[in-house]
Amino acid sequence: MSKLRKLSCIFSGTFGYSEKVKGGCVLFPKLEFLSHLESLKLVSNSYLAKPPHFFSFPSRLMELTLSKFRLQWSQISTIGVLPNLEILKLLLRAFEGDEWEVKDSEFPNSNT
After folding, report:
1. What is the strand order of the sheet 47-48 is part of?
2. pTM summary value
3. What InterPro entries does the entry give (predicted)?
4. pLDDT per residue rounded down to tens, the chain (112 residues)
């Protein structure tokens, strides 16, 4: 069991379907096994041929920073259900699109 509490990752290469990986799909790593992780910073220096289909975050996560993933706003729901999330930083091109709809059940620790 890992007791890692803080992690920063920079992704390089290609996410999604690409010729580089012979048509395979490069998936976002499953992180839920990092049961003590409280702070996570993810930066993509990758070309996103197709954004990751599935995010997997540890439920203890309190702080999350995303940058340059260019995700659709519909994928924010995966983050919105994290029960302990207190700080969410969305930096340069973390998401793309015109509208972010937050459901009533999402972001339970928000102060709004």
Report:
1. 25-26, 14-17, 47-48
2. 0.78
3. LRR_dom_sf
4. 568 999 998 877 655 544 554 444 556 677 888 889 999 998 888 765 555 556 788 999 999 999 988 888 888 888 999 999 999 999 998 888 888 877 788 887 776 5
Query: For residue 55, with 0-12 CB atoms within 10 Å meaning exposed, 13-18 middle and 19 or more buried, which class applies?
Result: buried
Tokens 């091109």 -> residue: 93
Element (H, E) at 76: helix 76-80
Asked if 42 contacts 18 with a C-beta cutoff of 8 angstroms, the reply is: no
Element (H, E) at 79: helix 76-80
Q: Find residue 47's DSSP bridge partners.
A: 14
Rounded distance, CA 23 to CA 104, Å?
Answer: 38
Please report how many Cα atoms fall inside a 13 Å half-sphere around the Cα of residue 58, on the Cβ side: 20
CA distances from 89 to 22, 25, 43, 63, 85 (A): 34, 27, 11, 8, 11
